[in-house]
């Protein structure tokens, strides 16, 4: 036996003897077989474990020098390799093995020489011969020698089958040998399997096949289903007639289960590879063979039957420039026992290019020598394209210095780049924008639905921090691109500038507005004096003078409402409203800002429109354009040295795209072509220093862009001057097609009741005449009222004149406030409905949850207000 073979490496029981027959070594398999420690075996006679083994056999084996046939390979499977080389002798006799952990059993001994030692291969026999009802013949024993212990023997002539005790026990019976007819086996398998078995036996008997080997299911006596593997050989007599059949049955249930689990795992692996667009491979360094998984064939665009993978064949998919790089990467990984990683481009059989990333790890033997490489290759064509796009966008981001985040559909950050202005430290989107998960998901959902969303001046903490936000959804890449900019400082400056601009406009219009208010007051005062005079003269028909007073007050109300709306803080909130109606409601204000000799023509379609836009900004944008048009007309007059006035035309219509277009044209000086590209630039102005500061049109452009609207400008129009076009995404409906079934007209007989009949109403206003008017009117339609004008009277009314169903209060009083008064009433009458009246316009006050009636108001408006109050509360 060659010294290169270690005794401990042999998988079968082996004992080593010296020339005296004493045990010098025993491998772990023998130690396990006899149940003794190595110290109890080594140095002891062979008889310690083998009874009556002839000592002269040891001498004869050593003297004959039976060779070193086993040195050719270390892969010895029991005695099979030795048998192939002819370097063994086998004793056909059975010897008793003395095992410490079991009863005596019989073994077969095979001899091999190892230098001046003798190795005995101890092979357990399949049963104790004395337990067999009929002793097996010599050739039968030889055949069964390599089989498992659960064996059978079929005497064909008598049709009796001998079953070993182990086989009978496996079927659930008492452990003892049986000789029964062959039909006994039919009890434990189904009919189809029985017929298949008979067919295979028939082929063996007819000499159409040389062996019998099949796997099937058996059912034990306790209904347990087992998978078994049956093998058999046929023995013929001297005349060639089948005489006996020998076989073994092994329980392979556990193996079958493992195979099924392995198949299931392989299915999962295949699914995982398909999902991840990857496949696995193994390169055997010794055999220089390559294995590919099924998915890898798909990635390379070929089929297993058409392509045999190995390192050289694989390289044909790559360009010549890459082949040497890949070959060197493999060789370097093998030589240095290091991991493998490379990216390359392949040309599939279809001619399509794909980018492949390969990652591998080495497999080494016990000596640290690399025997194989194992790894995965995945198609990264799509991800590489995304990455290239990300790098490009990141470059743009770096240029414009705005933070950008790339987040996939599972909310994982694919890439992020924070502007250098943030100090160069990366941060999470949620650290940068302080919104909640629900707000994040809502924005993400909108971007997914429409492909892109833009939000300007958006805040999630009551405008302590303000952002411009853009979210683009790349559906084919499954990536959301978040571009965010903290514009808090810019927003505050714009707000301050907007307020300043409004104050400037207010200063320009204050003179003409004061004139109109004086006219209103003059009409009202004159009508009241006429009313007083006629009444003193006893004239009864004085209704026309009362109507003059009411009309004058209504005009004054219109002026003050628009003036207050114009001067208040601009509304940032985007709302849905009708811009055409807004123009009509504010045309009075347009005319106020224009000098007398400039004509304003307004042409609007008979259409109901709806846009999403900051309503407070809409009229201001048009006012800005109208004032600019007036300045352009004045410049034209100055150029022509005349004062004939001019014309401004404001028209609107819905275009073919469904958008609302508003056109502002003038007869002014126009805009030269070289200035058209600069007209919206901040601080650019073609006016004199005293006339313009260059931020009006810049603010107009910024506001339009931020809210998905557009503005265009042309240097000349048919009127001669500039032509501005505002375009808003819009829903337009002809007024004739508008459903007015829900409109509620005010009916003097029914709505005046207002649902207040028999209700007790407490009224508080520091203007006694207003409180008295409200009380008298409500009493006229069936209510019981108490009206007071100060806090002391209010407390007295609460204590002595209650209970009350409704409390109506002014918001600003000399000795209290509407909020405080409401709290006093609710403390005593918690079920009372609350409403208020106020002359201060502040539609944005969300902290006051109750209905508000704007002053001044007439009886019809008061009635409608109480009607709505009882409907909604």
Strand content: 25-35%
Using the alpha-carbon principal axes, give the shape: elongated
CATH architecture group name of the largest domain: 2-Layer Sandwich
Task: Summarize the amount of helix as a percent range.
Answer: 25-40%
Q: Please outline the major beta sheet.
A: 6 strands, antiparallel
Low-confidence runs of at least 5 consecutive residues: 66-93, 126-148, 419-425, 688-694, 739-754
Considering the protein shown, what is the CATH homologous superfamily of the largest domain?
Histidine kinase-like ATPase, C-terminal domain
Protein name: histidine kinase
Domain PAS: 1-69
Domain PAC: 212-264
EC number: 2.7.13.3
């Amino acid at each position: 036996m060659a010294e290169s073979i270690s005794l401990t490496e042999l998988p079968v029981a082996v004992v080593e003897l010296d020339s005296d027959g004493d045990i010098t070594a025993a491998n772990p398999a023998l130690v396990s077989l006899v149940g003794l420690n190595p110290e109890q075996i080594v140095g002891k006679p062979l008889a310690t474990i083998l009874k009556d083994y002839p000592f002269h056999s040891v001498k004869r084996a050593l003297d004959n020098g039976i060779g070193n046939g086993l040195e050719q390979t270390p892969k010895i499977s029991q005695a099979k390799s030795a048998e192939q080389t002819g370097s063994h002798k086998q004793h056909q006799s059975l010897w008793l093995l003395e095992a410490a952990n079991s009863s005596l059993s019989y073994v077969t001994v095979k001899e091999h020489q190892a230098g001046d030692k003798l190795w005995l291969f101890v092979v357990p026999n399949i049963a104790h011969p004395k337990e067999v009802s009929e002793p097996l013949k010599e050739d039968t024993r030889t055949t069964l020698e390599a089989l498992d212990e659960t064996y059978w023997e079929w005497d064909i002539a008598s049709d009796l089958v001998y079953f070993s005790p182990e086989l009978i026990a496996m079927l659930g019976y008492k452990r003892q040998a049986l000789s029964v007819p062959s039909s006994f086996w039919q009890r434990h398998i189904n009919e189809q399997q029985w017929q298949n078995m008979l067919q295979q036996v028939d082929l063996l008997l007819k000499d159409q096949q040389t062996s019998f080997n099949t796997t099937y299911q058996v059912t034990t006596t306790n209904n347990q289903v087992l998978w078994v593997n049956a093998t058999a050989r046929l023995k013929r007599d001297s005349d060639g007639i089948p005489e006996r059949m020998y076989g073994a049955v092994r329980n392979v249930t556990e193996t079958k289960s493992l195979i099924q689990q392995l198949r299931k795992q392989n299915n999962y692996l295949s699914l995982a590879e398909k999902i991840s667009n990857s496949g696995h491979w193994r390169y055997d360094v010794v055999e220089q063979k390559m294995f590919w998984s099924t998915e890898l064939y798909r990635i390379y665009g070929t089929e297993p039957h058409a392509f045999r993978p190995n390192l050289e064949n694989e390289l044909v998919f790559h360009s010549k420039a890459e082949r040497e790089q890949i070959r060197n990467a493999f060789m370097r990984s093998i030589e240095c026992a290091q991991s493998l990683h490379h990216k390359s481009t392949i040309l599939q059989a279809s001619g399509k290019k794909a980018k492949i990333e390969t990652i591998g790890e080495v497999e080494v033997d016990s000596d640290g020598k690399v025997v194989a490489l194992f790894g995965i290759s995945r198609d990264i064509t799509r991800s590489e394209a995304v990455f290239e796009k990300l790098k490009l966008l990141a470059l743009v981001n770096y240029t414009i210095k705005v933070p950008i985040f790339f987040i996939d559909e599972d909310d994982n950050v694919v890439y992020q780049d924070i502007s250098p202005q943030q100090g160069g430290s990366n941060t999470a989107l949620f650290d940068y924008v302080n919104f909640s998960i629900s707000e994040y998901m809502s924005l993400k959902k909108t971007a997914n639905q429409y492909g892109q969303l833009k939000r300007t001046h958006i805040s999630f903490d009551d405008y302590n921090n303000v952002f411009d936000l853009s979210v683009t959804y790349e559906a084919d890449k499954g990536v959301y691109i978040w571009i965010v900019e903290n514009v808090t400082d810019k927003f505050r400056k714009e707000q301050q500038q907007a307020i300043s601009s409004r104050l400037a406009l207010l200063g320009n219009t204050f003179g003409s507005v004061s004139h109109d208010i004086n006219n209103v007051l003059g009409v009202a005062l004159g009508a009241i004096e006429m009313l007083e005079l006629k009444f003193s003269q006893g004239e009864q028909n004085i209704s026309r003078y009362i109507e003059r007073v009411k009309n004058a007050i209504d005009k004054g109300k219109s002026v003050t409402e628009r003036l207050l709306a114009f001067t208040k803080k601009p509304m940032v909130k985007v709302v849905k409203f009708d811009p055409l109606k807004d123009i009509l409601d504010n045309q009075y204000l347009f005319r106020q800002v224009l000098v007398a000799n400039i004509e304003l023509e307004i042409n609007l379609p008979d259409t109901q429109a709806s846009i999403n836009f900051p309503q407070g900004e809409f009229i201001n944008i048009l006012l800005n354009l109208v004032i600019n048009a007036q300045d352009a007309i004045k410049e034209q007059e100055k150029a022509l040295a005349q004062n004939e006035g001019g014309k401004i035309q404001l028209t609107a219509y819905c275009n073919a795209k469904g958008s609302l277009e508003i056109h502002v044209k003038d007869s002014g000086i126009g805009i030269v072509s070289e200035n058209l590209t600069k007209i919206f630039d901040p601080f650019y102005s073609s006016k004199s220093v005293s006339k313009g500061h260059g931020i009006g049109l810049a603010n107009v452009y910024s506001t339009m862009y931020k809210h998905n609207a557009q503005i265009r400008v042309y240097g000349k129009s048919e009127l001669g001057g500039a032509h501005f076009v505002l375009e808003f995404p819009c829903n337009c409906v002809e007024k004739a097609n508008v459903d007015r079934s829900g409109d509620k007209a005010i009916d003097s007989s029914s709505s005046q009741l207002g649902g207040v009949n028999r209700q007790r109403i407490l009224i508080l206003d520091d203007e006694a005449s207003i409180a008295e008017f409200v009380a008298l009117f409500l009493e006229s339609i069936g209510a019981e009222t108490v009206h007071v004008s100060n806090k002391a009277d209010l407390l007295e009314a609460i204590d002595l004149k209650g209970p009350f169903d409704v409390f109506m209060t002014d918001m600003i009083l000399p000795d209290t406030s509407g909020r405080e008064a409401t709290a006093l009433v609710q403390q005593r009458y918690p079920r009372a409905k609350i409403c208020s009246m106020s002359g201060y316009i502040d539609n944005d006050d969300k902290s006051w949850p109750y209905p508000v009636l704007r002053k001044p108001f007439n009886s019809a408006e008061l009635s409608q207000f109480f009607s709505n109050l009882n409907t909604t509360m």
